[in-house]
Specification:
CATH architecture of the largest domain: 3-Layer(bba) Sandwich
Shape: elongated
CATH topology of the largest domain: FAD/NAD(P)-binding domain
Number of helices: 8
CATH class of the largest domain: Alpha Beta
Structural class: alpha/beta
Bound molecules: flavin-adenine dinucleotide
CATH superfamily of the largest domain: FAD/NAD(P)-binding domain
Order of helices and strands: EHEHHEEEEEEHEHEHEEEEEEEHH
Largest sheet: 7 strands, mixed
Strand content: 15-25%
Number of strands: 17
Distance between the termini: 36 Å
């Protein structure tokens, strides 16, 4: 759909993951003109998850793709415009208290913004990782798993993402070798139980990958035991890496305050350091990274945006004093103080 340049919306939402789409449902249902800008396809990380079993209302689980599609249709049905394949590159504050959102397609203006760009997989930086992207190196089993039918794959990591994705790969691969730097997994107990019960899942403990091997495509991974320092090579056709996540906030540098890891700083009502700009979901300083949580925050942010549009009063003083060292006995008393909440940012999915 084509928008005329400088068309102004009440609300612009950057990112169409569960947080963004929930906010879009609330805002458009509340009769606010709402646009969602998404650099890929609506759904975010959720859309890449094969089966979601912990989202209430679906006792048999639901595919992430289907849940994403339902949320998208629900937002559109109330009038939200979801612009896919539209990457936001920067945001410009205007003199009339609106914001211009600059994208690689067309620019839009909005009176209030919600930043929900989520996170992406952290790269390991080991030799071979960049060279073999698309030729055996992947971060998405749901996307690439079917290519490994009858083959051997390595999964790097021991959190929820690694083990869930490993179990998915086991549907195709002959064997899934989990290489984990510790001697126990961090994944949820139920996921661990399934992994240990699956004969295709093998575990290489206390080990880190050093190099991904191959010529035209991946043929193996060299790894080292961190306790014995022993080196070994595992012949595999694919390597799936789940070693953590990074927030997609590069385009927000200098626009809102970020914590030292790049997560957007907010108070407990999801206000950022910029007036009328809110943030939610995995990309801000949040306690957990889960769909149910992202959805709750999307709802909270939508209601805060509605209140802001009614009053145009800025709830959070800006700029946020992130760099100031805490003084003895003189902590910042504002609710949801930024550097307190930033410590909560745990990686619950990796
Ligand atoms: C493998 C895996 C399995 C998971 N399984 C579960 C599970 O079973 N249950 C559960 O509750 N949670 C699960 N999670 C976590 C869950 O998916 C996330 O917590 C949730 O998707 C976060 O939602 P979000 O809206 O904050 O961000 P995201 O889902 O990350 O969406 C952010 C969106 O913003 C877009 N974006 C980023 N930058 C820009 C830009 N500059 N311009 C435009 N768009 C941009 C991205 O393309 C993306 O679509 C899983 C995660 C992974 C990786």
């Amino acid at each position: 759909m084509s928008l005329s340049p400088e068309r102004t919306f009440d609300v612009a939402i950057i990112g169409a993951g569960p947080a963004g789409m929930t906010a879009a449902i609330y805002c458009s249902r509340g009769r606010l003109s709402t646009v969602v800008l998404e650099r890929g396809i609506a759904g975010g990380q959720m859309a890449l998850t094969e089966l979601i079993e912990n989202f209430p209302g679906f006792p048999d689980g639901i595919s992430g793709f289907e849940l994403a599609d339902r949320m998208k249709r629900q937002a559109q049905q109330f009038g939200a415009e979801i612009l896919e394949i539209t990457a936001v590159s920067t945001i410009r504050p205007e003199a009339d208290a609106t914001y211009t959102v600059v994208t690689d397609q067309e620019n839009v203006r909005a009176r209030t913004l919600l930043l929900v760009p989520g996170v992406e997989a952290r790269k390991s930086g080991i030799p071979g990782e960049a060279e073999f992207i698309g030729r055996g190196v992947s971060w998405c089993a749901t996307c690439d798993g079917a290519l490994y039918k009858g083959k051997q794959v390595a999964v790097i990591g021991g959190g929820d993402s690694a083990i869930e994705e490993g179990l998915f790969l086991a549907k195709f691969a002959d064997a899934v070798h989990v290489i984990h730097r510790r001697d126990e997994l961090r994944a949820a107990r139920i996921t661990q139980e399934r992994a240990f019960a699956n004969p295709k899942m093998r575990f290489i403990w206390d080990s880190v990958p050093l190099r991904i091997l191959g010529e035209n495509a991946v043929t193996g991974v060299e790894y080292q035991n961190v306790k014995t320092q022993e080196l070994a090579t595992l012949p595999v056709n694919g390597v799936f890496l789940y070693i953590g996540q990074l927030p997609n906030t590069g385009f927000l540098q200098g626009f809102v305050d970020l914590d030292p890891n790049g997560y957007i700083l907010t108070n407990e009502l999801l206000c950022t350091s910029a007036c009328g700009v809110f943030a939610a979901g995995d990309a801000h300083t949040t306690a957990i990274k889960q769909i149910a949580w992202a959805i709750g925050e999307g709802a909270l942010a939508a209601i805060q945006m509605e209140k802001y549009l009614d009053s145009l009063e800025c709830a959070t003083p800006a700029p946020w004093p992130v760099e100031q060292p805490a003084q003895a006995g003189g902590k910042d008393q504002r609710p949801g103080k930024a550097n307190k909440t930033s410590q909560l940012n745990t990686d619950s999915t990796t």
